[in-house]
Amino acid sequence: MKNHVDEAYLELCKHILDEGTAKGDRTGTGTWSTFGYQMRFNLQEGFPLLTTKRTAFRLIATELLWFLKGDTNVRTLIAQNNHIWDEWAFEKWVKSADYRGPDMTNFGHRAAIDNQFNTIYKEQMAIFQEKILQDDTFAQIYGNLGPVYGKQWRSWPDATGGTIDQIKNVIDSIKNNPDSRRHLVTAWNPAEVEDMALPPCHSLFQFYVADGKLSCQLYQRSADVFLGVPFNIASYALLTHLIAKECHLEVGDFVHTLGDAHIYKNHLIQVQEQMSRDARALPQLLLNTDKESIFDYEMADLMIEGYDPHPSIKAPIAV
Prior knowledge:
Its main location: cytoplasm. It catalyses: dUMP + (6R)-5,10-methylene-5,6,7,8-tetrahydrofolate = 7,8-dihydrofolate + dTMP. There is one protein chain. The protein folds into 2 domains: 227 residues, Thymidylate synthase/dCMP hydroxymethylase domain (Thymidylate Synthase, Chain A); 73 residues, no CATH class. Helix content is 38%, strand content 21%. It contains 11 helices and 10 strands. The longest helix has 20 residues. The chain is globular, with a radius of gyration of 20 Å.
């Protein structure tokens, strides 16, 4: 079967390189950017884990389960050897009065171009990670990312002082009123954006039921195409599979709508390397059939079968 996932993703990369505009950004790295782009993936044709570079399903899945539990502290992820949120928590620490180590100003950019500084940065990051795991007070202060995705998904504050569980509500809505046009979850809470370590990039998603299948559309306001988008595709595909199973539906399409879709200028060589590779067969997702509720899953309940990608391609993250 043709791999439509890598094909669509690499076409996005080509579109940005051919048609994109050079723009500045808050990280100071610079990007090639385009605005308004959409990809559609038929989830019946395989699980959309890119094959033109290895994409770490374990990291994607543990992050999604973290969101679904309403967790906002990196301690949970670090304990599972998942470090995709570490930089934002680390930044909070090194900018605080409690930090006494070497100057970490602009650490993401400096670590990518200065090997000596990169060694120092890694030493400080290791200290940070150990303190998060061993010191409860430190973890509570510096591991907490603020009201990011998990908080908004599971505990959106309402006008009466209570909270709204958007994930539970959308599952109930799909089960009891499948033709509704209100199967929405939003992470963009204007009242709390400034309190978040990183305002939500994947900010709104909607489900759609037709012909016994569940489809999902994500609106992503800001898309780091090389590092972030492959994770986002697989994460929302996994979420769609989990909710479809609980609602006794098959999976349909995942529609990925991008606002500012950009390639960082220090990712150009990596993107070109990936574009030179041929796609391989998509893997399949296997779920533990004993689990009934989306909230009961653990990493051991999720498995990818038949994944044979090209090697991973490393690139610096812009913080």
